[in-house]
Amino acid sequence: MSRIAFADESGIDGNPKCYAIGVVSVAKNRLGSFNAVFEQLKKEHGFSQEVRWKSIGKGHGLINLSIDWLYRILKSNTARFDVTVVNTEQYRKWSQQGADREGAFYATYTQLLRHLARQVRVTTEVFIDDRSDEYSKQHEAVETIANRMLNKLHSSGRLDRVTKVRSHDYPGIQVADIMTGAVAASHRLYLDPKARLNAGKRLAIQRMAALLGWDALHYDTYPHDKFNIWHFPTEYRATPESRPIRVPRMIPFITPADLGIQAKQRIDEAG
After folding, report:
1. Contact, 127 vs 7, CB < 8 A?
2. Range of the domain at 33
3. Which of the residues 29, 84, 105, 119 has an alpha carbon 20 to 30 A from that of 262?
């Protein structure tokens, strides 16, 4: 059974302490149901715009949509989420003087897709969010390099195609966006507790983490068939620790009052 995957990144701009690349994947014959659920949940949570992590703020609808999607992936028969978080200070290809950061970024992108193909062991077609790259055919390089690596490893899994698309047109990329954004933001807060992050995003991280039995999303995981956070490079593994995922249970959705309480707490802490 072939699969289809949707990838997005978070935290690349500026001079970040970390960035993340995440992939939501599902059995190809379940894609129609996946897209139908996406539209259904947008209506249920009263959110009509493009789903993006950067849009999470004062409204509770998009936060609840994020919580709902994580829960459904954990309970799904075929869907999974895999994300790599890169500590840029420890990643020499990124941090060394004169580094080719675009090349370093796509090297980690390739590693993540190689990992996914090896795990699912079936042909996987990948759609990635369209970025403005200096080298316009980087996505083709990712496909070629990853398949070459897979052949060397004698893996039965392979990447059939890697295609750049507009996130607006692909629900899977939008889901990858909010999941990856939450993981990346939680790691940034761990690496820099003074990092700025609005109350809505902080609350989203807390509630999504609670679904896993955690207090935040800045840990890495033991191998799991539904949800995986990988730290890179090797020196960053198990920082601050690796954690198992508990059997998921749905937690209550947030209300406008919850957002108000979270915002007040942030003001009190700052004062």
Report:
1. yes
2. 3-270
3. 84
